[in-house]
Write a structure and sequence with these properties.
The protein is mainly alpha-helical. The chain is 68% helix and 2% strand. The protein has four domains: 1-33; 116-248, no CATH class; 307-492, Arp2/3 complex 21 kDa subunit ARPC3 (Orthogonal Bundle), CATH 1.10.1760.20; 501-721, Hypothetical protein af1432, CATH 1.10.3210.
Amino acid sequence: MHSFFARVYDYIKRGIVALPSAIKSFGDFIWRSVIQNQVARAWLFGGVVFVVLVMLFYSSLIPKQLNAEIGERSTIDYEAPRGIENRYRTEQLREKASEAAYRAAVNDPGFYIIADTAAVTARQKMTALFEQIDWKREENEEAVAADISVTTALIQQQAREIQSRLADRVQVVMPEQPLITLLRLDDARYQAVRRQIETIYPRMMVSERISQEAVQDPDSIIAPNLPEDLPTADRNLVRNVLERLIFINQTLDKERVLTSQDIARREVMPVYVTRGTAILMQGKEITEEDMTLLEDLGVLNSGPSRFLMFLSSVVLVVLVVGLIAAYLYIFNREILMATGNLMLIGLIFLTVSIVAVAIGFLPSAWAGYIIPVPMGAMLLAILIDRKVALIMSAILSILAGIVVGYQLQPALVLLAGSWAAVYSLAKVSQRSDLTRAGLVSASVSFLATLILGVLSGGPNNTSILQRSLLSFANGIVSSVLTIGLLPFLEHTFGVTSAIRMLELSNPNQPLLRRLLVEAPGTYHHSIMVGNLAESAAESINADSLLVRVAAYYHDIGKIKRPYFFVENQIGQDNPHEKLAPTLSTLIIISHVKDGVELAAESKLPKQVTNLIEQHHGTDLVRFFYAKATENENSERDRLRESDFRYPGPKPQTKEAAVLMLADSVEAACRALSKPTPARLEAMIERIIKERLDEGQLSECNVTMKDLGILAMTFARVLSGIFHSRIEYPENVVKEFEKKRNTGHAVAH
């Protein structure tokens, strides 16, 4: 037993002793595998962003679950976590509108039509009448034929029998007197009256809408339908019969009534409960309206499970991330391949989302109008790409509308303001342009809020104006935040914005001031190359600003030994005359390495440093190579061409190729004694052909078409720089000098 505990103690002791070493080893592993690995860092950051977004949306969209029953008294106070339609109140108003529309239709004659059964009913009544009369008239004819007297009493009895049968069979209450008259008429007159009734009655019942009022005053319907040539006695008889035969034949047009009711329902504006509105109050009885609101908010325990809602949040984030990734893969794969850019996009997206969720918890119904989506759009437009900024701002606007209670109006306002800011940043030349973009975004947001508020029938003009002012303030604050965050993001992620590039092009930059003072010839050459390269880059849709800035700095390495370069040897001996060609070559070539080192010390952007490093490629220092080969004392078999070439690398981008060609062209053309347009064009074409034949442009995406455009651009710009001057006659010059000496200035 003692030995067992001794062994356990020994294992524990060894574990404690080895723990620091294990922790250190694990830390080293994490450092090597994650911290120093750019891809691993990107995946780790992406995972963190994904998890945070899921938790953000889950926490903001999932309200706490409640237990509630109609008729119970609430034990808590509960406010609406987001704006929502009061479906119960809205439905009540719509039912009232529908009932009102029905009552109006019942009282409106225009909603009535003649019933489909009117013709059939009229035929039944008329047939029943004449069947009974014909039957009794036949009995009377048979009685007369049998010499049986047809007395008045008999006729009256027959009329009463007909009355009874009509009332029972077809609900016609016919007076006795018209029936007696019809029974006593001779056959010819009877047939004439019958034909009139059979003609007028069916036509009248299917063409005239007969209401209750018309039945009570039948003459208004019957009189216009009676023939004018009808004898008076017959006319009165026909009228008396028709008065009892007519009936209410109109009925409501159900289709029109339903349409009217539907229109009335649709015209009722939905009733909304804004964020922060009290739904339950402690001690107050829970109503059906309260339960409907709670159900629609999804806060009852009978709603979807928490797991399902969490899964929905995960799917939402996956869809958003997938949409962004798909867009970048299809339209901007370069950004997708750059982990730094992806991390920057993720950080901006995450920051705006966190702010949106935080604002979403505010009880105000206007919280959605102050989410700084325009800030994210402006940062992405400046640091990444304008098209990416448009897509991301659209997604962020939709998500912002979701987290503030599934509200469409704030989402549309944020989208309009963000896109306005992005489009206003098409040309950024100074930081004040960000302020201008903020003002544009603020103005567009203000107008969008105002218009949408009016169109949606806002609560009142004051509330619409308040929301509009909040939208305006959001645009201004977004621009201020953008200006403040831009330098921090540039430094952290190594991204250089156009504003940073413009700052680097300022002649007051320390390196450029040193170049001007210590190597003025090189400075002038750099400025000329910058102007030439900028125009050339614009002609082939390359980054002209990057090329111009890189041109200003491409020869800063010459600061270390300025007098070894011919452009700085004004009035001085050439030191290369006293040096061996190989040593001179080393000095000349070293200006690239020295420039890269100075750029690193001055923390110039990586894009500029790359162009400094590539602007000579692996070009041959021809002058000193030729001088070395002409030296009689040199061992030609031991002379290597590679010793006289720049170390490279060759240009990797269009911008680097443009800078290389502009540098070579400017230096060569400046050395021409008479730079006529023809000689300039020939020189430019020769230099481009040499670089192409040497393979200096083999690793960049410059096409032959681009080279043709570059040649024309170089020729046009240099023709303007090296334009010929008018040579004045000697007598004119002397006269000019005479006038100048006497104080009369002559304009030149």
